[in-house]
Amino acid sequence: MTETNLDTIQDDLKEVYSDTFVMHEPEEDVRGIEGLTQFVSTIRSAFTDLSITLEDEMAEGTRLLAVGRRGEPTRAN
Q1: Would you say 17 and 40 are in contact if contact means Cβ atoms under 8 Å apart?
Q2: What is the pTM of this model?
Q3: Distance between CA atoms of residues 74 and 58, nearest Å
Q4: N or C: which end of the chain has fewer CB within 10 A?
């Protein structure tokens, strides 16, 4: 994903994820496209050079588990 605005991020995420998406985070679960859009926007603001490499995916029925590895970002500002 390149530098974009929230609408473009949300459109990109809609191509890949469903509205019932749930990402389990330590502090609070991220739910739905709107929650994921806000999460991605927040992370990209804090770590402008962040990269994530998808290591593996496992699917069963309607469930998908994706395992990724984060690069070594530097903080913005």
Answers
A1: no
A2: 0.64
A3: 30
A4: C
